[in-house]
Amino acid sequence: MTADQPTPDQPSTAVEIARAVRGKQLKATAVTAAALERAKAQNPALNAFLHLFQDRAMSAAAAVDSRIESGEADSLPLAGVPIAIKDNICLGPDLREKGDSRGYGGPTTCGSRILEHYHAPFTATAAQRLIDAGAILIGKTNMDEFAMGSSTEHSAFGPTRNPHDHSRVPGGSSGGSAAAVAAGITPVALGSDTGGSIRQPAAFCGLVGVKPTYGRISRYGLVAYASSLDQIGPLAANVTDAAAILDIICGDDPLDSTAAPRFAPDLTSGLDKPVENLVIGVPLQARSDANHPAVAAALDAAIEKYKAMGAEIIDIDLPLLDHAVAAYYIVAPAEASSNLARYDGIRYGRRAELSNKAALADVYTRSRAEGFGKEVQRRIMLGTHVLSSGYYDAYYNTALQVRAKLLAEFTAAFEPPAACHAILMPATPGPAFRIGEKTTDPLAMYLEDIYTVAVNLAGLPALTMPASTADIDGAKLPIGVQLIGRPFEESTLLRTARMLEMV
Amino acid sequence: MPEPLSSAQVRRIATLARLDIADADVEALRADLSAVLGYMDRLKTLDLKDVEPLAHVGRYTNRFRDDEPGQTIDTETAMNLAPKTDPPFFSVPKVIDGSGGGA
What we know:
Largest sheet of chain B: 2 strands, antiparallel
Mean pLDDT of chain B: 88
Oligomer: heterodimer
Order of helices and strands of chain B: HHHEE
Structural class of chain B: mainly alpha
Distance between the termini of chain A: 22 Å
Shape of chain B: flat
Structural class of chain A: alpha/beta
Largest sheet of chain A: 11 strands, mixed
Helix content of chain A: 25-40%
C-alpha cells in the first residue's frame, strides 16, 4: 500500500463512507475531491485509469450532498462512495435527464485502439444502479484489450502496474480496477469476469473480487467478449464492501434477456452470521505440483482456519478441472470471434484511411487489422478456426461437451452426499508475475487462468480473497484463495468468505 | 485433431475473420495458434460419448416484454458515432458496379 491513503480518522471503506455521508458527518464533495487527488497523484506510476471524471464526478457529488441535505439519505445507500469503472462498461448520457448534467459520458475504449474515440450513447445497467444509489464514478480503468488477457499488458494504452510491486502486473483483465482499489484510490471498483478477470487481479492485488452467478447482474452496457461467460462484479478491499456493491447491482433487467428473473437476496444483512455445519470441498486437482509454494501454503492455512471454526473439509474430485483451460480457450474465442465481427469500421469505431478505390471488404479487413491488437487478433482467429467447417465438431462441439460434464462435476459436489456449501481452491497458480514475463508465450499466459475459467464455463458464483502475503524477491506479494458457491447462493458464498476474513 | 496449422491455413482463417494480416506476422501466428491448438489435443482423451453439448448455462425460456415505444438512440446520435457518414446514412465504398450486375 502506498501514500495518499485516507488518514486514519477518515472513513476508508465504502460502507463507512456511505454511512458518514448519509449521516452528514462527511461531504460527498470532500470524499470525491480526495479520491480524484489520489488518482491524479498515483496514476503516473500505476496507469490504472484511462480517464478521470474530474468535473462530472464533482458535480455528481454536489448533487448527492444537496439531496442528503433535503432528507433523501434513505434513497442513497452508497451516498458519496467513489467508484472506479472498468473501461468496457459503457457510461453515456442519462437519457432521463435534461440539460448539462446528463450522466457521465466520456470514452469507453475497452483498452482498444478500435474504440479509442467511442463515446457510448447509453449507460450500463450496473453502472446506472450505482449512480442511482448515490455512488460517485471517478474514472474508467485500464484493462486488457476487450478483456482478453490476464495481466493488463494487452491494453492499447500501456500496462497497469501492481501497487504492491511496480515491476509486476496487477493481473487482468480488470487490472486497472484492481490497482485503483489496492492503491487506496477508491474503496471499490467494477470489473468484468469472463474467465477470471475479476478474481485473478483481485488475488494479485490483495483484494476481494466477486464473479456472481451468470445472470445475476445485467450485462446491458458491458462490451461483449464471450456472452455466455461474461459477468460484471465488484473488486473491494473487504467482503462487506463487496456485498454492499452487489446488493445494488444484482437483479433482473428488462434490457438483458439473460439476466436471471430471480429475487436478488440482501447480502449485507446477515453477512457476519457464520454458515452452520459448513462443508467445504477441496478438489484433488487444486493440489497441483505446479502451484507456487506460497499458494499451496495459503490454501493449507485457509483449510486449517476453517477446520478450527468447526467446518468439515472434504476432498472432492473434479477431474475436468485439468481440462477447463482447453475447453475455455475454445468456447471464449469462438464467442469472441462472433461478437467482435461488429467492429467493421462502418457504424462506429476506428475506420482505416483508404483510397477512394478501396473495396468494402478492404475497409473491414484494414480497419480491424489496424484497430485490434495482437492478442485480440489471435483470439478472433482461434475462434474463427474452431467454428469453421471441418473443425467445429473436433473443437467447438467437444468443448461444449466438456462444459456440460464440468458443470455435472460441480453439481455433484454441491449435492448429497458431498453437499458442499462451497469449494475452496487456489485463485491462481502463483503470485503476480513480472511485466513482460509471459507476453511472448500466449499458452503460458492462458495457463495462468487454470483455477478461474471452470467457474465461468459452469456459470457459478465465485470469489477470491486475500489469504496471506509472501516475500518474493524482496517484495511482499498478496496470495489469494478462491471460494466457489452453488448457483444463485451468493449469500452463503459471501458468509463463508466473511468467516475466513474475520479470523 | 489435426497437425500444426500451415501458413496457407493461417491466411485462410484471417480471410474468414476479416483480418488483413501482414506477411511478416504469418509465421508467428502459425506457431502461436498451433501451440494453443496442440494443447487442446488433451480433450481427445476424454470419454464424451452421449454427452449433450452445453452452449449456455442459463436455462430460461424466451422472455417477452410489452411492445411499448421507449427512449432510444436517435439518428443524430448514431451518425455522430460513425467514422464516415452522408446523413442520414452511413457511408461505405460502392458495392454495386454500374453494369447492373449486382453485388
